[in-house]
Amino acid sequence: MIQFLLNQELRSEHALDPNLTVLNYLREHLGKSGTKEGCASGDCGACTVVVGELHTDDQGAEQIRYRSLNSCLTFVSSLHGKQLISVEDLKHQGQLHSVQQAMVECHGSQCGFCTPGFVMSLFALQKNSDAPDSQKAHEALAGNLCRCTGYRPILAAAEQACCNKPQDQFDSRQADTIARLKSIAPTQTGELNSGDKRCLVPLTVADLADLYDAYPQARLLAGGTDLALEVTQFHRTLPVMIYVGNIEEMKRIESFDDRLEIGAATSLSDCYTALNNEYPDFGELLHRFASLQIRNQGTLGGNIGNASPIGDSPPLLIALGAQIVLCKGNTRRTLALEDYFIDYRVTARQDSEFIEKIIVPKGVPLFRAYKVSKRLDDDISAVCAAFNLKIDNGVITDARVAFGGMAATPKRAKSCEAALNGATWNSATVEKACAALAEDFTPLSDFRASKEYRLLSAQNLLRKYFIELQTPHIETRVTAYV
Description:
It holds the Pfam family CO_deh_flav_C. InterPro entries: 2Fe-2S-bd (IPR002888), 2Fe-2S-bd_dom_sf (IPR036884), 2Fe-2S_ferredoxin-like_sf (IPR036010), 2Fe-2S_ferredoxin-type (IPR001041), 2Fe2S_fd_BS (IPR006058), Ald_Oxase/xanthine_DH-like (IPR016208), Beta-grasp_dom_sf (IPR012675), CO_DH_flav_C (IPR005107). Residues 1-90 form the 2Fe-2S ferredoxin-type domain. Its EC number is 1.17.1.4. GO terms for molecular function: 2 iron, 2 sulfur cluster binding; FAD binding; iron ion binding; xanthine dehydrogenase activity. The chain is built from 17 helices and 20 strands. By secondary structure, the protein is of the alpha+beta class. Strands 2-1-5-3-4 form a five-stranded mixed β-sheet. It has a five-stranded antiparallel β-sheet with strand order 10-11-16-12-13. A hairpin with a 2-residue loop joins strand 1 (2-6) and strand 2. Helix 2 (98-105) crosses helix 5 (152-162), helix 10 runs antiparallel to helix 11 (280-287) and helix 16 (427-440) runs antiparallel to helix 17 (451-470). The protein is globular and about 70 Å long.
């Protein structure tokens, strides 16, 4: 059984189909049709809902953290121990919520189909903002698409909603909601079981290891932003899933003198501060990683584990020399991330083995990363590049260069590195290394970019890296796009 709050209503579910998304649960099981399906792939934001969960702040106070999610990519099992809020829950005692009122007064809706998703993103923004902030507003709404308004009135609504925000029913009930969430906090492995399909929800790494050993055919579910597409886009059935999002051990970020250790189930939103503090380019890339809804769900371990050749984080982690800790039963092994990827969607992971955490070295001063995509926000890379050079008295003593989008896996450019290692750091060396990239990669042409464009982009990004290190005041970091 799993338990969660539907606004303030306690829901206990056991026999639901584990392949059921929160979107379809709301619409088909509860008759709450305000949440819309636009794309079923997490691109449009029409299905946005907000999930609240217990969170301890830096001062040790218990709070509710509200986050926007794409309900089309969220399986119901991930709600275990949390609070689900949909657009129907905002109106209170006959009065529109302040974010709804702002949309009305600022004329932020025309056809209205996308409006509930915008309202929920604005609600989450309001809960997480103390004052109007145009940058945060753009970030909060980047995952919501509208074909009618041109966005200006919606951004005006965001400013109004976050300026002198009034107390709402969620604020007045916060203490009670915290108490109720604490009362339903999971204490043992939860389960959804429809007879032919099941999803298990362990609470510890040891329990996960035992369950995965017992069900090696199970699919591991973290954020679900990739896995859920198999159900929503390809109409496949997932007979057994194991949800790892309630394992606190796998959501920790620990900082040591020489490294960060990031649990594989840590959301990309939660990774941001630690990675940005150490490597601003990594932080900038995370700002361009899909949408805020996706970053609130997607995990660093999932972005590695799905072995996509265009995943944004692996090239950066490979260039930094990151390692992963793989767990199977009581056995753990540490593997260089670059050795994890073998071929297209093929990895070195053994049966019943899972990524427990990612180890990211600290202290890499010349690390830079760049992403080339058709859109600045909410788009997949055509090429993603990461550079990490050690230079001593003008001579390159060690070069780590990694790319995504250039091959069947994210990988290092070994010929390029060979051209750099031991050479003087100058434009002539850079040109030789650019030429060597043609030996490292024979990229494919697809709808994102041609093979010629990809290779030229990769070469130009190395040139860009050289120019920025020579004249750091002109750095544009990862904001390059087509």
